[in-house]
């Protein structure tokens, strides 16, 4: 069954937001791009667990999916527990999870292109090092973006998530 909720996860700087915007252009009909970094309030360190934050963000995205508008959720899911929270939070929807990854060299190029690389390193490089190997293995698609344009990555995701030729199962308002 075609997806009506696509989750893009991976390290900061891999291109989740850019690829999400390209997906909005290639997928049929309107899709909401729910960018967690843009939608979450500042959270004081230690006030919530990572799992509470994931659950809250997935819950907000689910509210949109429940209206019949398909969603692309751009979020960092660290490991199988976060993936399970995300899938459970979107229970009843057709969820397609994509882990985007790249080499450190490509990550540094992405960060430099958006002006956040350089000494001292941005938060993204230490995050990349800490999270290497922690991305969910239970994803529907693992895609290394090395050598791919955002358009090529979006096309591969769209083909995998909507194998029926580009129609979603969600009702349109």
Automatic annotation (TrEMBL):
Gene3D superfamilies: P-loop containing nucleotide triphosphate hydrolases (3.40.50.300). SUPFAM superfamilies: P-loop containing nucleoside triphosphate hydrolases. InterPro entries: P-loop_NTPase (IPR027417). It comes from Mangrovactinospora gilvigrisea. It comes from the Bacteria. This is Uncharacterized protein.
């Amino acid at each position: 069954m075609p997806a009506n909720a696509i989750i893009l996860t991976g390290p900061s700087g891999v291109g989740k937001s850019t690829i999400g915007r390209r997906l909005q252009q290639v997928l049929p009909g309107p899709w909401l791009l729910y960018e967690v970094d843009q939608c979450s309030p500042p959270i004081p360190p230690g006030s919530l667990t990572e799992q509470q934050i994931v659950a809250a963000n997935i819950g907000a995205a689910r509210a949109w999916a429940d209206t019949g508008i398909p969603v692309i959720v751009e979020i960092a899911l660290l490991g199988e527990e976060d993936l399970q929270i995300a899938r459970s939070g979107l229970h009843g929807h057709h969820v397609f999870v994509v882990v985007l990854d790249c080499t450190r060299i490509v990550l540094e190029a992405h960060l430099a292109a958006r002006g956040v690389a350089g000494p001292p390193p941005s938060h993204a490089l230490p995050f990349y090092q800490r999270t290497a190997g922690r991305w969910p293995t239970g994803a529907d698609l693992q895609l290394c973006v090395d050598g791919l344009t955002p358009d090529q990555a979006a096309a591969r995701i769209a083909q995998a998530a909507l194998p029926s030729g580009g129609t979603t199962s969600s009702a349109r308002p």
